[in-house]
């Protein structure tokens, strides 16, 4: 019993020490994220996806992105993306600014599975990313020089999303809905020293489905971001808004 008590006390002390070190290297900042996206159906089983992200933290540009992908509809509730591409403009921002703003090329693959239970609509998204980050260095004259995109990293992401229609039984034109999501990230690579989940994004908000093409949702976003060195952490809290406009270039098949 004495050994058990001593072990509990030791674990408690270590936990307090670890928390204190983390708190010393953790910053709290405001966040404003905006997104526009579109799924364009070009074949009954093939979609082209496009997305633009404008992200700000601490009233400064954090990251801007342009994303595109080809999606295959395996069946109604399962969509597979064998290849997607993202270009990311990264910025030196906030209370823990990076030494250099390294942009990024990114390839990714993902699976999206959807199902429903009553009014609750569930979406599960698993994504694997191959990231190629730019590197910089200072010349002997003190000038910043851009190198190649040779910092290769891998990352896995999983997001759970729930949407709940309020004024209709399902999400259709003129529907108000609630939206809740949580996405967790884990990275690895030569320049990544922190291999536990290093990012978490939680969103809680509301939306409106205008018609079968367009919807808008906005709400509160929390981003926990652990830096690659494993020593620094950002807690970014603020607002996120997303506008969606989907297009269907196929002809409806009549029975």
- How far apart are the first and last residues' alpha carbons, in Å? 74 Å
Main sheet record:
11 strands, mixed, barrel
Run of helices and strands: HEEEEEEEEEEEEEE
Given the C-alpha coordinates, what overall shape results?
globular
Report the helical percentage.
under 10%
Q: What would you say the CATH architecture is?
A: Beta Barrel
- Work out the count of structural domains: 1
Low-confidence runs (pLDDT<50, min 5 residues)? 1-22
CATH topology: Porin
What is the level 1 CATH name?
Mainly Beta
In terms of quaternary structure, what is this?
A: single chain
Structural class: mainly beta
Give the strand line-up of the largest sheet: 1-2-3-4-5-6-9-10-11-12-13
How would you describe the overall organization of this protein?
The chain is mainly β and 255 residues long. It has a single domain (28-248), classed as Porin, CATH 2.40.160. It is built from 1 helix and 14 strands; from the N terminus they run αββββββββββββββ. The protein has one helix spanning 2-24; strands at residues 26-43, 46-57, 60-75, 78-90, 104-117, 120-133, 136-138, 144-146, 151-165, 175-189, 199-209, 214-226, 233-245, 247-248. A hairpin with a 4-residue loop joins strand 11 (199-209) and strand 12. The longest helix is centred in the N-terminal third of the chain and has 23 residues, at 2-24. The chain is globular, with a radius of gyration of 21 Å. The protein starts with a helix and ends in a 7-residue tail after the last strand.
